[in-house]
Every structure is written in structure tokens, then in C-alpha cells.
Amino acid sequence: MKKIILRGLLVLFLIEGLWLGWWVFGRSPEEQVRAAQANLIEAVENRDWKKLEKLMAPNYTDAFGHNRDTAILDGRKYLSGFFMLILKTDQTTLKATKGQGMVTSMIRLEGNGVGYSHMIVGYVNQFTEPWAFHWSNPGRWPWNWQVNLIHHNQLVIPQVQE
């Protein structure tokens, strides 16, 4: 009886190990980028700046002159007033090859808070074009995807005098 239970457990662990191996190394680049994009959206919603920093490439740039550090600083500045923030994505397209990917997605914000929060929700939700996220994987591990550029044609960031 004990041998049957031990063999059953061994088979179960073997199946679980094979599944885990496939999940780590067998997923397509599209599935890997989709998972990275979901992690990025979740990090923004939770305002998890450490996770966001890991998801952004060290050489991150955008049309507003941000690098990774200044983008995170501005994110902290403008999103810190939210008590709750949800990013709803729609019309998402994803293209990926080994080491590179691009996601375009319409994003609508839901949330409440103080300070800039209501103005940001209204401003972002008026956009009629999708956001573009450019991803790369500089390493060999499937979880090393990093966003290099986030772009939106309609986004204008005003210069704020402090």
C-alpha cells in the first residue's frame, strides 16, 4: 500500500515538474510578453515602484525625455493621490519574436483619490488611440522581459512650475 502511494506521489511530482518546466521554458514569446504586460499593468495599479523598476529596462526612454528613474519619479508624483487605481485594457494587439515584442492597447482608468487623480482619469480616458509598449528580453530567461519604451501619440505632459 505504501509503495502505491509513494509511486503515485512520484508520478504526481514528475508531472508537476514537467508542467513547471514547460511553463518556464516552453511558452512562446507572445505568451511571455503577455505575462510581462500583465505584470506591468498590475505594478502600475498597485503603485509597486520596485516591481515597476524591475520591469523597465535600464536604458528606458520616451518622447518626454524620461529615463527609467525619472519616469518612476513622475509616476510616484502623479499617481500617489489615488486610493484605488484600475487600468482596463481593450483592443490589445501583441507581436513578439524571440527577444522583442510590442503591445498596443487601449487603456481606460478607473479610480478615485485626491490631488491630480480625477484630472488624470479624465485626461487619459479621452484618448482615442492605443498605447504602445516596446518590450525586449536581453537575457536568456523567459522572465527577463523589460519595457524599453512606452508611447502614446495623444499624450502631452505639461510642464508644471513647482
Short description:
By secondary structure, this protein is α+β, with helices and mostly antiparallel strands. Helix content is 43%, strand content 26%.
Describe the structure.
This protein is an alpha+beta fold and 162 residues long. It has a single domain, classed as Nuclear Transport Factor 2, Chain: A, CATH 3.10.450. 43% of the residues lie in helices and 26% in strands. It contains five helices and four strands. It has a four-stranded antiparallel sheet. Helix 2 runs antiparallel to helix 3 (49-55). The longest helix is centred in the first third of the chain and has 24 residues, at 2-25. It starts with a helix and ends in an 11-residue tail after the last strand.
List keywords for this structure.
four-stranded antiparallel sheet, alpha+beta, Nuclear Transport Factor 2, Chain: A, 162 residues, single chain, 4 strands
Query: How many helices does DSSP assign?
Result: 5
Q: Remind me, CATH topology?
A: Nuclear Transport Factor 2, Chain: A
Please estimate the helix content: 40-55%
Radius of gyration: 20 Å
The CATH C-level class name: Alpha Beta
| Alpha-beta content class | alpha+beta
Strand order of the largest sheet: 1-2-3-4
